[in-house]
Design a protein that fits this description.
Elements (H helix, E strand, L loop, with lengths): L2 E11 L12 E15 L2 E13 L3 E11 L2 E10 L4 E9 L2 H4 L3 E3 L1 E9 L5 E13 L2 E13 L4 E12 L7 E11 L3 E8 L4 E7 L4
Antiparallel strand pairs: 1-2, 2-3, 3-4, 4-5, 5-6, 6-8, 7-9, 8-9, 9-10, 10-11, 11-12, 12-13, 13-14
């Protein structure tokens, strides 16, 4: 079952401009609170939003957005501005991945930060996991760090996996390192693991804009 309560005020505004000038439709939102309670994979969960205010052209301020399900919790707060510097923060604390994705077990903890205007937004995420298991694949002691810059359309992701087993019965690879960097026009990927079953992958690519 799903139960939800919400307070919402919204408006669409077409600014008055001179004939022939470009007109930007603006959307204003004032959401004091939203609370939803539901079952996700048979486990009680809730989603709560506090004080979302602002407009599409000027940006939005968010006092808090919280998702919780058992020992899993995600929190986001801050503001995203169209013309001024943004500051958005998030905490991801997933202690039971199996509650969110049946067939996957383990944990994941991460932090998320966003800064800059909408056109120059910088995103940064970093996190770790003690273990992640899906089928016969096992990952232990995982750490990662990633970033994205909207103005330059550039991204980077580095990660380390202490132990990686891809197939049951196969000895695990160790001390794996992932490196992905570049932009949509040109990017590079490398993945290297040591141990008795070593792995080496290197690739370069490009995407049409």
């Amino acid at each position: 079952p799903l139960s939800a309560q919400a307070e919402l005020t919204a408006a669409l505004v077409q600014p008055a401009t001179e004939p022939g000038a470009q007109q930007d439709l603006n959307v204003f939102l004032d959401v004091p609170a939203i609370a939803a309670h539901f079952n996700l994979n048979g486990i009680a969960a809730q989603l709560q939003l506090q004080e979302l205010q602002g407009s599409l052209l000027e940006g939005f301020a968010l006092k808090g957005l919280t998702f919780s399900q058992g020992t899993n919790r995600v929190e986001v707060n801050g503001q995203i501005a169209a013309k001024e510097s943004s500051q958005l923060n998030g905490i991801i604390d997933l202690r039971a991945l199996e509650s969110l994705a049946p067939g996957v077990t383990g944990d994941l903890q991460a932090t998320l930060q966003a800064a800059g205007t909408l056109d120059t937004l910088d995103l940064h995420i970093s996190g770790h996991s003690d273990r992640i298991m899906a089928g016969s694949t096992r990952l232990r002691n995982v750490a990662f760090d990633g970033s994205f810059n909207r103005a330059e359309q550039s991204f980077a992701l580095t990660g380390m996996i202490n132990t990686l087993r891809l197939v049951q019965g196969l000895k695990p690879a160790r001390q794996c390192v992932l490196d992905l960097s570049g932009n949509s026009a040109r990017h590079n990927l490398s993945f290297v693991c040591g141990g008795e079953n070593s792995i080496f992958v290197s690739a370069a690519g490009a995407l049409d804009e």
